[in-house]
Predict the 3D structure of the following.
Amino acid sequence: MAMKIAFVELITAALAVGAPVGSAVAQTQEQLDRCEGKNDPPVDLMISECTEVMQSGNLTGNYLAIIFNNRSNAYRMKREFDRAIADYDQAIRLAPNNPGPFMNRAHAKWGKGDRAEGDADMARFKQMCAPNMAACGFPPGSHF
């Protein structure tokens, strides 16, 4: 489940935290695009761009959680499961009602060989999505 920030959302987030709007936002949008994996950048570039966006201080809350989730996905692609799990933990701390990082962390834990912990995260994801499957990206009428 890819999590992306649209340009309008980025501007809203920047304004909410008092960040300057203009070339800094445009540069951040380019970084966000690479952090999201847009146009298939190398995984290490995804990680570095997500890190730079995090360190900019321009995003907080749910927006920052999305960046942590994106960087976690990149770490998981590199099979750096401990780093991925640590970032998923941060994403969950920042946006505890977002089910995506629970599913993604489950995959990282399974990749690490921790079946029970992965199963627990997947159960949490399903619990959060069951009331509104469409909000979790599933077609209407879907069931687990």
Observations:
- Residues 61-77 form the longest helix (17 residues).
- The two ends are 16 Å apart (CA to CA).
